[in-house]
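Input C-alpha cells:
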C-alpha cells in the first residue's frame, strides 16, 4: 500500500461520503484508481437502500483496497467523512487522508497535486475561488449562496481561506489524529468550516490550489434559503463556543460598528 507520491512513501486513504450515488461511485472509483492504484478508498454510505452499497461491494471484487462503511440513514456529510477518517485510521493508519465528493464534482486527476503539497503541518484545499480555478454547470443562485457562505465564514470565524466549503481536501495524519479527538457541533457540510477553524487554532497552515469543480451530475439539491440560515446559525454558535469573553465582546463591538 505504500507508494512514492513525489515526496516520500505514503499510505493514502481517500474518504468518499455517498447518498444514493450508485452510478457515480462506479465512475469515480475507476477514475481514482487510474491515478492512484495503491490508494485505500473508504466509501461511507448513508443511502436508505442498499443499491450504492451493492455497487461498492461489486467493485471491491476488482479493487481490493476499496472498503465500505454503511450507516443506513442520512447523518450528514461531515459526520460521514469523520467516520471514514476513523475507519481508515483504525485499519490502515494512513500518512495522508483525502476527502472528496462522490458526485464527480472533484477531478481525480488533481489528487497527486494535492498530495505532493501536503506535509505534517499543512492541509491542502482544492479551491474554487482562486486564480486558475473553474466552476462548471453552476446556476447563478448557487454561486451567490456559496460566495455568501464563504464570506460569512471569513468574517465571523476569522478564517482567511477563499473557499471554506469545498470538500476536496488533503490532510496529514497528525491533523486527522487531532480532529478525531474532538467533538463537533455540526454534522453536515458546515463541518468543513469547523474543521478549518479548529485546525488553524491548533497551528496548522492551509494552502489553496486551483481546482476545476463540475456539478450537475449529483442527485442532491440545495435548499438555498434553509441552507443559508442554518449556516449562519452554526457560524455564530461555533464562533462563540470557541472564543473567550473578551473576544466575544470585541466581536459584538465590531458588528455594532459595522452596522453604524
Amino acid at each position: 500500500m505504500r507508494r512514492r507520491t513525489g515526496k516520500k512513501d505514503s499510505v493514502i486513504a481517500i474518504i468518499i461520503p455517498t447518498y444514493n450515488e450508485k452510478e457515480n461511485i462506479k465512475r469515480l472509483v475507476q477514475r481514482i484508481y487510474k491515478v492512484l492504484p495503491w490508494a485505500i478508498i473508504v466509501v461511507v454510505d448513508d443511502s436508505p437502500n442498499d443499491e450504492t452499497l451493492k455497487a461498492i461491494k461489486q467493485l471491491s471484487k476488482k479493487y481490493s483496497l476499496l472498503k465500505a462503511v454503511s450507516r443506513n440513514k442520512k447523518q450528514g456529510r461531515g459526520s460521514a467523512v469523520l467516520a471514514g477518517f476513523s475507519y481508515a485510521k483504525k485499519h490502515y493508519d494512513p500518512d495522508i487522508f483525502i476527502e472528496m465528493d462522490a458526485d464527480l464534482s472533484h477531478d481525480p486527476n488533481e489528487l497527486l497535486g494535492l498530495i505532493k503539497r501536503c506535509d505534517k503541518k499543512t492541509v491542502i484545499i482544492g479551491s474554487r475561488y482562486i486564480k486558475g480555478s473553474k466552476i462548471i454547470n453552476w446556476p447563478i443562485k448557487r454561486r451567490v449562496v456559496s460566495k455568501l457562505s464563504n464570506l460569512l465564514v471569513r468574517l465571523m470565524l476569522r478564517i482567511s481561506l477563499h473557499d471554506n466549503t469545498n470538500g476536496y481536501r488533503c490532510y496529514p495524519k497528525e491533523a486527522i489524529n487531532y480532529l478525531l479527538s474532538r467533538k463537533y457541533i455540526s454534522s453536515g457540510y458546515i463541518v468543513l468550516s469547523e474543521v478549518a477553524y479548529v485546525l488553524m487554532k491548533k497551528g496548522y497552515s492551509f494552502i489553496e490550489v486551483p481546482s476545476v469543480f463540475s456539478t450537475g451530475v449529483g442527485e442532491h439539491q440545495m435548499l438555498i434559503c434553509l441552507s443559508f440560515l442554518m449556516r449562519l446559525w452554526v457560524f455564530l454558535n461555533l464562533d462563540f463556543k470557541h472564543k473567550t469573553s473578551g473576544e466575544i465582546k470585541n466581536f459584538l463591538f465590531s458588528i455594532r460598528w459595522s452596522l453604524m
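The chain has nine helices and eleven strands. The chain has one domain: 3-259.
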